[in-house]
């Protein structure tokens, strides 16, 4: 299950080390948005671009070698340009929107994009029905991208809502993938905005006995983004133990970083099997290394 940076990085490592075609990545659609009539799926695209080897590692989003001529022209027309629509990335949004308009379902469209990018793994958005993550801030209730990109995730967040989750059904392929999986891995991403939207829709299909969760917090810091500040603002415990408590219904193994070995006993006491690994992935080598170590657990 992958949303955000950490989950997508781990998906890249797993894709590299597993036999071709044996990985399924279920992505969150909670931070999808529509701009200029285009259907944009940032977290699904991050996984697609990473698995296709074209992710923009410098920007941490979008396509490598990106240019922004279209965005500059939109700016000249006086349009809002806070969301960075890159020229190459726009091709994905155009094609996704076009294929959806021909009546194809979101999961089939994503599978097609993945196939055309030469990806062997299955990438499945969690649901066909719209789900939108909203955050409450001092500037009001914002869409996730308004908070994340426009406001540069600098505002305190006092509530997260996953709008539409109760009506949304898992996308075609999700139930089969979860039923047939040897292992299910909850990636090291922000639980509140990256993982819980997925769990809200597919959680009932997850067998905790086969599921492991990887900590997104190491030595008091998140891999990237506002995980710590957000959990604190929500009044939640922003530690690996707090994360583990939140996943209790879904996972039986918790992967903790060596740096946080002092929390192993508390997490074990919650009923988990605890594995201590170096969970900080760094570059492609580190992503493959962590993937290999997880597969040995
Ligand atoms: N993140 C930014 O910080 N600024 C952007 O302008 C931006 C544009 C963007 C365009 C397409 C895309 O797929 C992702 C984009 N992201 C951008 C990243 C993204 O909004 C967030 O990192 C995730 O949604 C949070 O998980």
Helices and strands in order:
Blueprint: H1 4-17, E1 24-27, E2 33-35, E3 38-40, H2 42-51, H3 69-76, H4 87-101, H5 106-116, E4 122-125, E5 132-137, E6 140-143, H6 144-150, E7 159-163, H7 174-180, E8 184-186, H8 191-202, E9 211-214, E10 217-218, E11 221-222, H9 227-233, H10 240-246, E12 253-257, H11 264-269, E13 273-277, H12 284-296
Bound molecules: ligand FO1.
The site of ligand FO1 has 14 residues, from helix 2 and helix 6.
Characterise the protein shown here.
- The protein is α/β, with parallel strands linked by helices and 297 residues long.
- Helix content is 39%, strand content 17%.
- A four-stranded parallel sheet has the order 8-9-12-13.
- Strand 8 (184-186), helix 8 and strand 9 form a beta-alpha-beta unit.
- The model has no long low-confidence stretch (mean pLDDT 97).
- Residues 4, 31, 42-43, 45, 61-62, 83-84, 89, 145, 148-149, 194 line the site of ligand FO1.
Task: Throw out a few tags for this protein.
alpha/beta, single chain, binds ligand FO1, 4-stranded parallel sheet, 12 helices, 297 residues, 3-stranded antiparallel sheet
Task: Please bin the fraction of helical residues.
Answer: 25-40%
Task: State the low-pLDDT regions, or none.
Answer: none
Q: What structural class do you assign from the helix and strand content?
A: alpha/beta
Secondary structure: number of strands: 13
Distinct ligands: ligand FO1
Biggest sheet strand order reads 8-9-12-13
Using only CA atoms, what is the Rg? 18 Å
Number of helices: 12
Order of helices and strands: HEEEHHHHEEEHEHEHEEEHHEHEH
Specify the overall morphology.
Answer: globular
Oligomer: single chain
Q: What is the makeup of the main sheet?
A: 4 strands, parallel
Mean pLDDT: 97
Instruction: Estimate the strand proportion.
Output: 15-25%
| Span of the ends, CA to CA | 18 Å
């Amino acid at each position: 299950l992958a949303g955000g940076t950490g989950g997508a990085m781990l998906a890249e490592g797993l894709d590299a080390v597993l036999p071709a075609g044996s990985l399924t990545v279920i992505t969150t659609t909670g931070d999808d948005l529509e701009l200029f009539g285009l259907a944009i799926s940032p977290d699904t695209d991050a996984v697609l671009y990473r698995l296709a080897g074209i992710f923009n590692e410098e920007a941490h989003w979008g396509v490598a070698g990106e240019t922004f001529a279209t965005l500059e022209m939109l700016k000249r027309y006086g349009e809002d340009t806070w969301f960075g629509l890159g020229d190459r990335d726009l091709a994905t949004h155009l094609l996704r929107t076009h294929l959806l308009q021909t009546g194809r379902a979101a999961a089939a469209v994503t599978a097609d994009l993945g196939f055309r990018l030469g990806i062997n793994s299955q990438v499945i958005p969690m649901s066909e029905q719209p789900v939108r993550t909203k955050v409450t801030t001092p500037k009001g209730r914002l869409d996730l991208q308004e908070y994340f990109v426009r406001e540069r995730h600098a505002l305190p967040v006092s509530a997260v809502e996953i709008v539409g989750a109760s009506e949304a059904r898992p996308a075609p392929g999700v139930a089969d993938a979860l039923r047939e999986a040897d292992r299910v891995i909850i990636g090291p991403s922000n639980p509140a905005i990256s993982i819980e939207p997925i769990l809200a829709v597919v959680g009932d299909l997850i067998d905790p006995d086969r599921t492991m969760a990887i900590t997104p917090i190491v030595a008091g810091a998140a891999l990237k983004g506002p995980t710590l500040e957000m959990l604190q603002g929500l009044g939640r415990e922003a530690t690996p133990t707090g994360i583990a408590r939140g996943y209790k219904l879904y996972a039986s193994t918790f992967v903790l970083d060596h740096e946080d070995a002092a929390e192993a006993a508390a997490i074990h006491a919650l009923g988990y099997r605890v594995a201590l690994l170096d969970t900080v992935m760094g570059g492609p080598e580190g992503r493959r290394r962590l993937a290999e170590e997880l597969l040995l657990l």
